[in-house]
Amino acid sequence: MLKRQCPFHIRSMTQLNHQISIFTTVRRDENTISYTDKILELIEANEQYGFSGALFFQNNSNDLEPWVFAQEMFNRSSNQIPLIAINPAYVHPFTAAQKILSYFNLHRRKLFINFIIGTSKSDLESIETPLGHDERYDRLREYIEIMNELLKGTYPMNYQGTYYQIKNLRLPYPLDEDYFPKHFISGSSEKAFRTRTITNSYCLQMAKSKKVFNSMECKPDGIYLGIIARTTLEEARNALIEKFKPKFPEAKELLKLSMSNTDAVWKNELLKEKDDETFRLEPFKNFSADCPYLVGTYSHVAKYLLNYIIEGVNTFVIDVEVEEMGNISQVFKCLNTF
User: Fold this and answer.
1) Which residues pair with 25 in a beta bridge?
2) Cis omega before residue 249 (within 30°)?
3) Residue 306 and residue 331: Cα distance in Å, rounded?
4) What is the pLDDT of residues 153-172, one digit of tens each?
5) What's the chain look like in SS3?
6) Is the pTM higher than 0.85?
7) 198 beta partners
8) How far apart are CA 135 and CA 137, in angstroms?
9) Contact 80, 52 (CB under 8 A)
10) Residue 2: Cβ within 10 Å count
């Protein structure tokens, strides 16, 4: 195995001296057995290529939830960081705080959290009485306040909010400050921005094309995207076509149907985006991925990523198949050649 060098340290001709974190994630699969195998392969490949860790989703599609995968990551690696999706609809803030403290006790390891509000209307209807988009962010604010206070506090906690009422609740001791989770909040809406500001959280958003991204007034700390890179542009484009050709004749209709089942601002933004030579939307529009892809030669894709880094991005969440991780690693290594 290769020696891990995580996070990647970028020194470039632009005189940057940045450390970036690279998290991988496997597209959700309703076949539980195959999805489990993919996650375990992903953890091993992350270790081999020196990536920071993996994002583990929370959804109704399978019975394997992110905290279990995080435990497997701790068991199977020495340095990787789980990026755990937390949706208030699924777990109480006290339970989340307990789990975080338990991981600290067992492993003395840090984890990252990706707070989400859940955008599938059908998922929300299955698990709870659905709240509106802005209400879910208000609940998330309360959730983060309670969880953080429980992890910090040495006294019984009382909290009277709209969505949570807490009385004399406490953990046995506070979490060591150095092991506090790094918080991301996903979302592109104004309400997501305000919630991040109030809770002092980091911003994770879907990647945008260079033109749109550079014009943004408030840029995210982290972005979510896919990468297909090869030695030549023709090879990369052929790989894109092969991997993301429509799986169903009704792919465009399925995309429209999924759009009617969400109130996610980012999905509507992505539909309005335009392709450029590197930034490609075929995987999203063919209903094969939830994100855009950067497609091109190793150096070409690396230069596109460098633009994000120059603009302040320090965390990348990469939609992957395990067999592509060597190519993705090559792209990030190219950043140090400019």
Assistant:
1) 319
2) no
3) 11
4) 878 999 999 999 999 999 99
5) CCCCCCCEEEECCCCCEEEEEEEEEECCCCCHHHHHHHHHHHHHHHHHHCCCEEEECCCCCCCCCHHHHHHHHHHHCCCCEEEEEECCCCCCHHHHHHHHHHHHHHHCCCCEEEECCCCEHHHHHHHCCCCCHHHHHHHHHHHHHHHHHHHHCCCCEEEECCCCEEEEECCCCCCCHHHCCEEEEECCCHHHHHHHHHHCCEEEEECCCHHHHHHCCCCCCEEEEEEEEECCHHHHHHHHHHHHCCCCCCHHHHHHHHHHCECCHHHHHHHHCCCCCCEECHHHHCCCCCCCEEEEEHHHHHHHHHHHHHCCCCEEEEEECHHHHHHHHHHHHHHHHC
6) yes
7) none
8) 5
9) yes
10) 9
CA distance 278 to 327: 16
Residue 263 backbone phi and psi in degrees, to 5: -115, 25
* Joined tokens for residue 300: 């070409």
Cα gap 83→105, rounded to integer Å: 18
Q: How far is CA 289 from CA 182, 195, 226, 277, in A?
A: 26, 27, 9, 19
**In contact, 55 and 25? CB cutoff 8 Å:** yes
| C-alpha to C-alpha distance for 124 and 131, rounded to whole angstroms | 8
Residue 302 has which token pair? Answer: 């690396």
Question: What is the Cα–Cα distance from 195 to 193, expressed in whole angstroms?
Answer: 5
Among the listed residues 58, 68, 55, the one whose alpha carbon sits nearest the alpha carbon of residue 24: 55
Amino acid symbol at 28: R
Q: Which residue is associated with the tokens 């030695």?
A: 231
User: Angle at CA 304, nearest 5°, toward 218 and 291?
Assistant: 70
Instruction: Tell me whether strands 165-169 and 17-26 are parallel, antiparallel or unpaired.
Output: unpaired
Tens digit of each residue's pLDDT (9 = 90 or more) over 9-50: 555 444 455 789 999 998 766 666 788 899 999 999 999 999
* Short-list 247, 285, 320, 292, CA closest to 44: 320
Write the pLDDT tens digit of every residue in 250-290.
Answer: 656 666 666 555 666 777 787 788 999 999 998 888 877 88
Torsion of CA 292, 195, 147, 99, to 10 degrees: 0
